From TrEMBL:
Keywords associated with the record: Flavoprotein, FMN, Oxidoreductase
Residues binding FMN, per UniProt: 94-96, 123, 144, 172, 233, 255, 292-296, 315-316
Family: Belongs to the FMN-dependent alpha-hydroxy acid dehydrogenase family.
Active-site residues, Swiss-Prot/TrEMBL: 257 (proton acceptor)
Co-factor(s): FMN
Name under which the protein is recorded: FMN-dependent alpha-hydroxy acid dehydrogenase
A Pfam entry, by short name: FMN_dh
Matches recorded under InterPro entries: Aldolase_TIM, Alpha-hydoxy_acid_DH_FMN, FMN-dep_DH, FMN_HAD, FMN_hydac_DH_AS
Organism, scientific name: Rubrobacter xylanophilus (strain DSM 9941 / JCM 11954 / NBRC 16129 / PRD-1)
Domain FMN hydroxy acid dehydrogenase: 15-366
Length: 366
């Protein structure tokens, strides 16, 4: 399969001659610019990519039921995430090795995110070190932590993230081992140049880089070694959401890792309502719930917000924008999503992202 998703798009390069008008227009343009192995890695889901496809299909099954005559002309998209103001509830997901998409890697992505008025989560396996990214960034950063078998490495990374000014730690919980990205394995045995992991390359030898099988005690451990808020990423079961709150998580990302870990896991948007309900019960609304996976349209963002997400993270489209236009491409991708969200809110009669109701979303025709 040549594309990251199944939907029909214009073929034959015709779209590449005009300015992209939607996020999805960036996908074929990015593919033209990237090494085939890098492209396969970026696109890949795990195994048969059932969950990867389902992330999109589940959004497409949902309907928005607009309210009318509400006098909404300029919806307010501004919000906060763990107290940090953002221009819109559309954040940059932690993704490794941005250097596969652009030589400036995460430095360009962080500039693009900042210029779009939002925050970026920097991956443990970023191509540029957390110090370099922080030096380039024009907006707030969070740091995504993979805990390897060496806990000493994890603690050193946390210290570096703190010194670099990151405002939260995102602990990825869905990766006790790496998902099998067969689409990538079929075309390449290894990643092409650009796939450095600068923050950790300087720290360890290969033998330390196996992921650890974490337990809930590790969440408590992370909280004990840092005063930064901890966000748990990769939660799909409501009981895990409750445990996350009980172990002190300030936020939860409902995520199946963009379909890259357990194939057959539910779509994130399907899992969201039960997690939102569980977190509301367990934390009285203090913990924030975010979503990622398959967000490609402003209407997807609106559906997720209406179903209780405080914000969404966007993954692959940010790398498409990065490949096509560096920092400016990232800014434009985020700007397109923001513009579409604003448009959808106006058409749905919604004045602000704070006042959305699950009633806005329906599973079928009314
Ligand atoms: C190329 C690539 C690299 C990723 N690297 C990481 C990572 O280092 N840490 C992590 O927690 N998630 C990682 N993810 C998962 C994203 O954070 C996010 O969950 C996912 O991309 C969201 O789905 P979307 O791409 O459909 O928007 C990666 C995803 C991709 C596509
Ligand atoms: C050997 C490095 C694997 C990094 C995994 C990054 C990730 O979470 C993803 O690609 O997905």
């Amino acid at each position: 399969m040549s594309r990251c998703r199944g939907a029909a798009r214009p073929r034959g390069g015709s779209i590449s001659r005009v300015e992209p008008i939607s996020v999805l227009d960036y996908e074929p343009l990015a593919r033209e610019r990237m090494h085939p192995a890098a492209w396969a890695y970026l696109c890949a889901g795990a195994e048969d990519e059932v969950t990867l496809r389902e992330n999109r299909a589940a959004f497409e099954r949902l309907r928005l039921v607009p309210r009318v005559l509400r006098g909404v002309s300029a919806p307010d998209l501004r919000t906060t995430v763990l107290g940090t103001p953002v221009e819109a509830p559309v954040l940059v997901a932690p993704m490794g090795v941005h250097g596969l998409a652009h030589p400036e890697g995460e430095c360009a992505s962080a500039r693009g995110a900042g210029e779009a008025g939002t925050l970026m989560a920097v991956s443990t396996v970023s191509s540029r070190s957390i110090e370099e990214v922080s030096a380039c960034a024009t907006g707030p950063l969070w740091f995504q932590l993979y805990v390897y078998r060496s806990r000493g490495l994890a603690e050193r990374l946390v210290r570096r993230a703190e010194r670099a000014g990151c405002r939260a730690l995102v602990l990825t919980a869905d990766s006790p081992r790496w998902g099998r990205k067969e689409r990538f394995l079929r075309v390449a045995g290894s990643l092409p140049p650009g796939a450095d992991a600068a923050s950790i390359d300087s720290e360890v030898g290969e033998e330390d880089l196996a992921p650890a099988a974490l337990t809930w005690e590790d969440v408590a451990w992370l909280r004990s070694v840092s005063s930064l808020p901890v966000v748990l990423k990769g939660v799909l079961h409501p009981e895990d959401a409750v445990l996350a709150v009980e172990h002190g998580a300030a936020g939860i990302v409902v995520s199946n890792h963009g379909g890259r870990q357990l194939d057959g896991a539910p779509a994130s948007i399907e899992a969201l309502p039960a997690v939102v309900e569980a977190v509301a019960g367990a934390s009285g609304g203090r913990a924030e719930v975010y979503l990622d996976g398959g967000v490609r349209r402003g209407t997807d963002v609106l559906k997720a917000l209406a179903l209780g997400a405080r914000a969404v993270f966007v993954g692959r489209p940010v790398l498409w924008g990065l490949a096509v236009g560096g920092a400016e491409g990232v800014r434009r991708v985020l700007g397109l999503l923001r513009g579409e969200l604003e448009h959808a809110m106006a058409l749905c009669g919604q004045a602000s992202v704070g006042g959305l109701d699950p009633e806005l979303v329906s599973r079928g025709a009314r």
